[in-house]
């Protein structure tokens, strides 16, 4: 199992970014995918999840601003992040549970003026 995140960067408050998670080594369409984030000095937290039926769930802090999606043909999960705030600054990780949790290496998102 391999998960590779991309798309992070530096963005001004109010801006947008789209993160991608390229998956390999398992049947992508058969598993729920999740995005987590970890800010400096804080615990890793669940941001969004999408199941195999495209049902989604979000942390209250990102509802209405973030959208999780998946493209099973491309074995890729996405996190569209709009109206970004400084408190969204963190390393973002994608995750899949196959017996145990697998994690990508993470991608840094920094929201600052």
Could you characterize what this model shows?
By secondary structure, the protein is an all-beta fold. Helices cover 0% and strands 54% of the residues. The chain has no helices and eleven strands. Strands 2, 4, 5, 6, 9, 10 and 11 form a seven-stranded mixed beta sheet that branches. Strands 1-3-8-7 form a four-stranded antiparallel beta sheet, with no helix packed on it. The chain is globular and about 40 Å long. The model has no long low-confidence stretch (mean pLDDT 97).
Quickly describe the structure:
With 113 residues, this protein is mostly beta strands. It is built from no helices and eleven strands.
Element string (H = helix, E = strand): EEEEEEEEEEE
Mean pLDDT value: 97
Q: What is the number of E strands?
A: 11
Helix and strand composition category: mainly beta
**Distance, first to last CA:** 37 Å
Instruction: Give the DSSP E fraction (strand runs of 2 or more residues).
Output: over 45%
Poorly predicted residue ranges: none
Biggest sheet record: 7 strands, mixed
| Individual helix count | 0
Any idea what the radius of gyration is?
13 Å
Q: Approximately how much helix is present in the residues?
A: under 10%
Shape field: globular
Secondary-structure map:
Blueprint: E1 2-6, E2 9-11, E3 17-24, E4 33-38, E5 45-50, E6 56-58, E7 66-71, E8 76-81, E9 90-98, E10 100-103, E11 107-111
Parallel strand pairs: 2-11
Antiparallel strand pairs: 1-3, 3-8, 4-5, 4-9, 5-6, 7-8, 9-10, 9-11
């Amino acid at each position: 199992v391999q998960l590779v995140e991309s798309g992070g960067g530096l963005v001004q408050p109010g801006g947008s970014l789209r993160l991608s998670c390229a998956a390999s080594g398992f049947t992508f369409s058969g598993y729920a995918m999740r995005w987590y984030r970890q800010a400096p000095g804080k615990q890793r937290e669940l941001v969004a999840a999408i199941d195999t039926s495209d049902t989604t769930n979000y942390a209250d802090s990102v509802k209405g601003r973030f959208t999780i999606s998946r493209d099973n043909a491309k074995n890729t999960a996405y996190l569209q992040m709009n109206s970004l705030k400084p408190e969204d600054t963190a390393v973002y990780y994608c995750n899949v549970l196959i017996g145990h949790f697998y994690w990508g290496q993470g991608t840094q998102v920094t929201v600052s003026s």
